[in-house]
Structure formats: structure tokens, C-alpha cells
């Protein structure tokens, strides 16, 4: 077992588009009529059983013994009576299960994902059953996608979004992202709820062989302002979400495993 080395350098070209997930999955083309909801009663019942009787218990146990994720601020979600949209930073592969398995189990959470999440043979049926919704690739598909989001929110379900879009493992900053996805909340008149991941050094036995552990901080709901337009509400939610995220990632106890530097630094060094 090799010791974990802190301060390794990862170089990037574009903070908006570079992805370090390294999944090497060939993404399928998402058709315009992609079925975001299961149509049959049997499929919906099977999805419910898979989520609440298998996935959530298994992931909870895994978290106890492996991931060590701590959740702070879950009480901020308790009084929300409508559907809502979660917005978080994207720093790990297992971000996908955090919203449903650890943050909010009371209602179904649909996680907006890249098409590769539903592109692995056989596995794609499971990821869909667990709430993964791939982003569309056509104008018609985008319209159906927005209709699906509106329908889910109307049923008081939850949408989870990682607006940074791409995974940067153990990244301890906030990458730039546009206010576009905040229209999911502002168009439907529901709150945006920010959450942010920070990292702490492990303690106890074999701590020198373990990578940093996650802390998830959940913010207060950001409700739309009735006096503002959809676009201005999205901008307001975006601004407050960024401020919340930065207030945590800039803390000195946010432990960095890697140093992410622009490739231009190589030429200047």
C-alpha cells in the first residue's frame, strides 16, 4: 500500500471544458424523445425498490466504512414544501449518489448528468432507475428535457445539478460556471439550494494511506423574487450560490490533495 502524496500537480487547459473523470466511456447519442420518466407501473415500482431497499442502504453502509462523508446543514431542507433544485460543485465520481442517498431521501432526486452516465450497457438501466437524467443534444430534446424538469418539480421532486459539469477530483476551488442552469429553479418558481464539498485529512489507523474525506455543507434555500424576471432571478441565485460555495472552499482547513495549475505555467516556469 502506497502512502498518499499531497500536492501532486495536475495541469489543465480550459477550466470550463477539461474533464479529469477518466472514465473513457463512449457516450450514446440522446434521442429527442428520450423517456425521462418510466412509463410502466412495473418499471416505476422496480425503480423504487432498487433505490430504497438496495441502493440507499448499501451506499449508507459504504459511507460508514469507506467514504466517510459528513453532511452539515441538512436541516435547511426540512421546511421546503415544494420541489427544489440542488446546486453543488463536482469533485468526485461518487457525487452522483450523494444527493439522493445522503442529502435528501424523502423524495425522488433526479440528477442531471452527461450522456455517458446512461451509456454503459446494462448499467445504464440501473443509473436511470436511480435518477440519472442525461442532458439532451437537440433543440427538440431540450424542450422535452425542460418539460420533464417542470413535471418533476410540480410533483415536489428534487433536481440536482452540478453546474461545473466536469469532474475535477478533490478540487478545492470553485470553477467558473454560467447562470444558465439556475433557470431550472427560477422558471418553475422554486428555491435553489446550494451545497458545497470541502475536504479534511483523515485521522486514525492508516491515515497516511488514505485520501482526504468529504464534508458536504448545505446552504439555506434561495427563493425566487417575485419582482424579478426569470433571467434576473437566475442571475441572483447564481450569485448567491457562488458566494456560499466560496465561503467554504476558501477556509484554511479545506485540504488539497492535488494542485491544479494552467498548462501555461509549464512554459513560464
Fold and architecture overview:
This protein is an alpha/beta fold. The protein has a single domain (8-23, 41-249), classed as 3-Layer(aba) Sandwich (Glycerol-3-phosphate (1)-acyltransferase), CATH 3.40.1130. It is built from seven helices and nine strands; from the N terminus they run E-H-E-E-H-E-H-E-H-E-H-E-E-H-E-H. The strands form two sheets. The chain has a seven-stranded mixed sheet. It is globular and about 50 Å long. The model has no long low-confidence stretch (mean pLDDT 90).
Radius of gyration: 19 Å
Here the CATH topology equals: Glycerol-3-phosphate (1)-acyltransferase
CATH superfamily: Glycerol-3-phosphate (1)-acyltransferase
Separation, N- and C-terminal Cα atoms:
33 Å
- Give the strand tally: 9
Mean pLDDT: 90
CATH arch. level architecture: 3-Layer(aba) Sandwich
Low-confidence stretches: none
Number of helical regions: 7
Features:
269 residues; alpha/beta; Glycerol-3-phosphate (1)-acyltransferase; two-stranded parallel sheet; 7 helices; 9 strands; globular
Which secondary structure elements does this structure contain, and how are they paired or packed?
Elements (H helix, E strand, L loop, with lengths): L7 E5 L28 H27 L2 E3 L11 E5 L9 H6 L5 E5 L9 H7 L2 E3 L4 H16 L3 E4 L21 H5 L4 E9 L12 E6 L11 H20 L8 E5 L1 H5 L1
Parallel strand pairs: 1-9, 2-8, 3-6, 3-7, 4-5, 4-6
Antiparallel strand pairs: 7-8
Amino acid at each position: 500500500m502506497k502512502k498518499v502524496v499531497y500536492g501532486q500537480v495536475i495541469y489543465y487547459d480550459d477550466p470550463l471544458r477539461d474533464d479529469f473523470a477518466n472514465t473513457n466511456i463512449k457516450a450514446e447519442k440522446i434521442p429527442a424523445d428520450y423517456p425521462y420518466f418510466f412509463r410502466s407501473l412495473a418499471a416505476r415500482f422496480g425503480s423504487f425498490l432498487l433505490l430504497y431497499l438496495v441502493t440507499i442502504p448499501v451506499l449508507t453502509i459504504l459511507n460508514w466504512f469507506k467514504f466517510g462523508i459528513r453532511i452539515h446543514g441538512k436541516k435547511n431542507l426540512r421546511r421546503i414544501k415544494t420541489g427544489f433544485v440542488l446546486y453543488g460543485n463536482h469533485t468526485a465520481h461518487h457525487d452522483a449518489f450523494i444527493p439522493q442517498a445522503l442529502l435528501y431521501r424523502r423524495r425522488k432526486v433526479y440528477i442531471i448528468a452527461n450522456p455517458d452516465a446512461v451509456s454503459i450497457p446494462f448499467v445504464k438501466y440501473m443509473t436511470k432507475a436511480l435518477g440519472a437524467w442525461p442532458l439532451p443534444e437537440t433543440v427538440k430534446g431540450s424542450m422535452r428535457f425542460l418539460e420533464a424538469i417542470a413535471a418533476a418539480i410540480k410533483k415536489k421532486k428534487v433536481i440536482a445539478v452540478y453546474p461545473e459539469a466536469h469532474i475535477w477530483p478533490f478540487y478545492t476551488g470553485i470553477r467558473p460556471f454560467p447562470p444558465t442552469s439556475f433557470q431550472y429553479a427560477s422558471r418553475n418558481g422554486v428555491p435553489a439550494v446550494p451545497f458545497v464539498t470541502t475536504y479534511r485529512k483523515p485521522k486514525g489507523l492508516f491515515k497516511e494511506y488514505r485520501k482526504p474525506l468529504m464534508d458536504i455543507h448545505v446552504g439555506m434555500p434561495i427563493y425566487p423574487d417575485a419582482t424579478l424576471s426569470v433571467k434576473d432571478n437566475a442571475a441572483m441565485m447564481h450569485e448567491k450560490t457562488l458566494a456560499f460555495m466560496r465561503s467554504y472552499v476558501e477556509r484554511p482547513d479545506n485540504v488539497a490533495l492535488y494542485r491544479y495549475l494552467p498548462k501555461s505555467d509549464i512554459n513560464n516556469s
